[in-house]
Amino acid sequence: MKKIIYLFVALAFWNCKDVKKETVVTPVETETKEIAEEKKYPEALEKIFEAHGGLDLWKSMRFLEFAMEKNGVNEVTSTDLWNRKSLIETPDHALGYDGEQVWLKNKNDAEYKGKPKFYYNLMFYFYTMPFILSDDGIIYGDIEPLVFEGKTYPGIRIGYQNGVGESPEDEYAIYYNPETYKMEWLGYTVTFFTQEKAKEWHFRKYSEWMNVEGLLLPKTIVRYEYENNLPTTVHSENHFENVKVSKEKPNQELFEMPENAQVIE
Fold first, then answer.
1. How many Cα neighbours within 13 Å face the side chain of 62?
2. For residue 162, what are the CA distances in angstroms to 137, 141, 142, 165, 189?
3. Which DSSP symbol is given to 247?
């Protein structure tokens, strides 16, 4: 009888040790994960985030909306920043992404000019620089500084892991002011139409910024002509207004495909 009691006590002791061990391991793993996440960006990119209001503030925002004039009409882009559902509205068309598929609705007889699946998040991507470069699946690297009109801008090269996004072969280069760490230029390749590594670099200059809820967001983005993988002269400008960012979750019905819309394959 005593042997049975001793065996029961021994088993209870070892079970308690196992339970105690489990309670100790979990917070250590969590802490390690948090530390790893804090260190995953290049030091220069972290300083760029801070110069534009901070990555923590950006990631606390749930909704973004901005207006831009294009081809003589007002184009309004609305995006859920957490799931990337989006809606672009003009007087003639509505172009959206409901989380699974891209859709297009013609509001009248005007023909949509462009590639909907290429455009539905294009300006959103340009507009949310530099914060969009904190997305998962990004690979950071070195690149030669950009020299333009006698000024030198250090840069960070951006690539994507296989299977990330519609065009994982795309590359970006963010160039910044070495004194203020504000973003000054964006270099990028376009591979959507070929799905192959591109050799030509395009350029946009971030010439003006505005403070919106503590975040430094673009007021004007200037597209440049290019030659020999360098910017040359101004091609066109995009001006943004009525910019809104919010921590509130948007109504998800905003992004649902309406009746008489077509799915874009």
1. 7
2. 8, 16, 19, 9, 16
3. S
pLDDT in tens, 27-47: 333 333 343 345 489 999 999
pTM for the model stands at 0.81
Beta bridge partners of 87: 78, 96
Residue that is written with structure tokens 């959103």 in the block: 124
Q: In sequence order, what are the beta bridge partners of 178?
A: none
Reported as a single tens digit per residue, the pLDDT across 135-178 is 998 999 999 999 999 999 999 999 988 655 555 568 999 999 99
Residue 257: phi and psi, rounded to 5, are -70, 120
Q: Is 264 helix (H, G, I), strand (E, B) or coil?
A: strand
Could you give the CA distance from residue 257 to residue 153 in angstroms, rounded to a whole number? Answer: 43
Tokens at residue 16, please? Answer: 């308690």
| The token pair that represents 154 in the structure block | 């250090």
CB hemisphere CA count around 218 (13 angstroms): 29
DSSP letters spanning 147-173: EETTEEEEEEEEEE-TT-SS-TT--EE
Q: Is 163 left (phi over 0), alpha (psi -120 to 50) or beta?
A: left
